[in-house]
Amino acid sequence: MAKTDAINDKILQELTRNGRASNLELADRVGLSPSACLRRVQELERSGVIKGYRAILDRTALGIGFVAYITVGLSDHTKASQEAFERSISRAPDVIECHNITGTMEYLLRVEVSDLAKYKIFHTEVLGILPQVTSITSYVVMGSPKDERA
């Protein structure tokens, strides 16, 4: 594991803002020589602190106009039931995130589709047919004033 210090924190903050920054730019922003900066970034990658780099996509430009968070309750709480649900959800391309959560529901999903009609199809033909699912509650996103996901 890479050691955490103020410089590594600065490197991570800068890469979170712009993962395509050149090593020279990054070194300048964090106050290191390019070689020292590169060594630190490589160690953060090697240790798994930096898992990868992603493009931030414009969902609207991709035709995604409907986003919902969905809580899902399962009929039973066995490991087999959870694994079956997770396998099914992992094959659903409209599910962007799936989280096993605590509380009254077992899962929280983020679903992104083109419109309400496509969401209804997902709701009915993907979630609605899973034998483990006993409750579905949808929360439609009307806007996202802060969204720092990559």
What is shown here, in short?
The chain has 150 residues and is of the alpha+beta class.
Overview of this structure, please?
With 150 residues, the chain is of the alpha+beta class. The chain folds into two domains: 41 residues, Arc Repressor Mutant, subunit A, CATH 1.10.10; 75 residues, Alpha-Beta Plaits. It contains five helices and four strands. The protein has a four-stranded antiparallel sheet with strand order 2-3-1-4. A hairpin with a 6-residue loop joins strand 2 and strand 3. Helix 1 packs across helix 2.
What is the strand and helix layout of this fold?
Blueprint lengths: L5 H12 L5 H8 L3 H13 L19 E9 L4 H12 L4 E6 L6 E7 L2 H12 L5 E8 L10
Helix pairs in contact: 1-2, 2-3
Strand content: 15-25%
Global structural class: alpha+beta
Describe the global form: elongated
Compute the CA-based radius of gyration: 20 Å
Oligomer: single chain
CATH architecture of the largest domain: 2-Layer Sandwich
What is the number of independent domains?
Answer: 2
β-strand number: 4
> Which spans have pLDDT < 50 for at least 5 consecutive residues?
none
Instruction: Report the span from N to C terminus.
Output: 23 Å
Strand order within the widest sheet? 2-3-1-4
Main sheet specs: 4 strands, antiparallel
Name of the top-level CATH class of the largest domain = Alpha Beta
**Helical proportion?**
25-40%
Order of helices and strands: HHHEHEEHE
Chain-averaged pLDDT: 95
Number of helices: 5
Kindly report the CATH topology of the largest domain: Alpha-Beta Plaits
CATH homologous superfamily identity of the largest domain: Lrp/AsnC effector binding domain/regulation of amino acid metabolism (RAM) domain
